[in-house]
Specification:
274 residues; Rossmann fold; globular; binds S-adenosylmethionine
Length: 274
């Protein structure tokens, strides 16, 4: 493994974390699997829209990207990844070790880790804020680290959806069981593998996140709630079980006000620094 990338004294004083340089490993990466593995459906469609917005909106030339809780999988489009210097911060040693697309991987906590102001064109925090006790601290550090007009891409579960409510009120062992037996992920729950314990800080709610953005000079340029990719996965793997869940969701939607769809288990948001 290469020597750590030089870090300024300013950053060293604020961040007590190990820095590992993955520059050579990243050069061998052909395709991030995240999009390819996503079942066809609303989640995939929204992610493709997000890709289109990023490709059209990010500045030309080399990009500087911060993946907060990046783990070992990127959801960014290849056209963006291929012209970016990516810095990943993750609290899990195994996730950092398995990361093969970032130029710099840092073992650290996104709630406390700080970068020099005006460092990044894009911060991506995907499937992470639901696991973090102090989301506000993490978001404030993201804002600070962004360049003017820089963007934050957040992908997260909707706590008010059927899957959100079940996740919130069920024990962690049930999440591991679901991943292993319904999703068919044999490594679920092993070190460095999902599911990770879920906390659902109030800012994970889309309306609270929108209010936070408004207060902190961020414009919400994209927001989309969509059917959780667990539904198309279940329909493919366990059609009878999926039919039961779909029927239950339809009954709930019938009794809920407005156009609420309890299947809208996840959302994408893109925030832009004004
Ligand atoms: C569900 S995984 C998502 C990983 C990746 N973004 C993805 O979508 O595949 C959640 C990640 O957040 C990381 N994480 C959770 N809390 C964190 C924190 N406070 N600071 C940094 N990383 C954190 C976990 O270690 C894990 O890698």
């Amino acid at each position: 493994m290469n020597k750590a990338t030089p870090t300024s004294e300013w950053m060293k004083s604020m961040n007590e974390a190990a820095t590992i340089d993955h520059r050579q490993a990243a050069e061998t990466v052909q395709h991030p699997q995240a999009l390819l593995e996503l079942a066809h459906g609303e989640a995939r469609q929204s992610l493709l829209t997000v890709h289109g917005i990023l490709e059209a909106t990010l500045p030309a030339g080399e990009l500087s990207i911060y993946e907060a809780g990046g783990g070992s999988t990127s959801f960014l489009p290849l056209k963006v990844l291929h012209r970016a210097h990516v810095t990943v911060v993750d609290i899990d040693e195994d996730q950092i070790r398995n990361n093969d697309y970032a130029q710099q991987a840092i073992l650290g906590d996104i709630q406390t880790y700080r970068f020099r102001p005006n460092s990044f064109d894009l911060v991506i925090c995907y499937n992470v804020i639901e696991h973090v006790p102090d989301v506000e601290a993490a978001l404030l550090h993201f804002c600070e680290s962004l360049k003017p007009n820089g963007m934050i891409l957040i992908g997260a579960p909707n706590p008010g959806s059927l899957s959100g409510v079940v996740t919130k009120y069920s024990p962690h062992w049930f999440h591991v069981w679901f991943y292993r037996h319904v999703r068919g992920d044999k490594k679920a729950g092993l070190p460095g593998h999902a599911p990770f314990p879920t906390l659902f800080h109030p800012l994970v709610t889309l309306s609270n996140l929108e209010a936070f953005a408004e207060q902190h000079g961020l414009q919400m340029i994209y927001r989309k709630q969509y059917e959780s990719p667990r539904y198309p996965e279940m329909r493919r793997r366990m059609p009878a079980f999926a039919a039961l869940v779909d029927a239950a969701a339809k009954v709930m939607n019938f009794f809920l006000p407005g156009k609420t769809d309890v299947r809208h288990g996840d959302y994408h948001v893109i925030l832009r620094k004004r």
